[in-house]
Amino acid sequence: TYNQQTAFQKKQKKSLREAVSYLAESQEVGDTESTLWFTPINSLHHQSERPTSSPVKGRKSAAKMGCFGFLKAMMVVFNGIIFLAGAAILGVGIWVKVDSGSILSFLGKIENAPAELSQLLNVGYLLIAIGALLLVIGFLGCCGAVKESKCMLLLFFVIVLVVFIAEVAGAVVILVFRPLLHCCGFYNSSDFVDSPYYQSYGKLFPPQCCPGLMITGCFPKIKQLIDENTSVIVGVALGIAALEV
Q1: In which family does this protein belong, per the annotation (predicted)?
Q2: Burial group, residue 191, by CB count within 10 angstroms (0-12, 13-18, 19+)
């Protein structure tokens, strides 16, 4: 009858739906099992025991980054000042060598200016050399700190170390060898004529510089000392160069 056919069709539809649902569940279980089957055991172990980030380590790393940033900022600031000072000194040196007349007129307009300022005209090349050196040092320090370049920072520290050693060596040579050279002034004793010391005390030779009125200049004495010990100086220079390399 019609009712029996309808009931039979409903049963078939229900059976079909149950079969489709069973197949879908079987497929999901199969995919999960296959995933677990092909997943390495070590990976599952690491996933189950994934380490959590420690707040103490985070604070330590943040403190390190803050200290590094502070040092980097100080490096940039100080080397920026050195760069600007080098540019100013270089500019003054070039000005002295190019237009010394305007320098004299400018110094003459300064009230109560010390007489030693006129000696600025004699150190033009020295100012240019010092300014160029400070420019290079400041540039390497700033750019090396900003870009974090190991090569530039290494070159910066090497130049600073060489300058420091040269300054210490020069001071030691002046203090130790001045009494031994028996010299007075740069070229000779006439360097002190019309000097502030001469005008103030009426003496030609400062006693602390020229004991016994030695009239030979220190520059000729140093030149003579270098000429007599050329081989030793060259050997020491080559040894230092080999050590640096």
Answers
A1: Belongs to the tetraspanin (TM4SF) family.
A2: middle
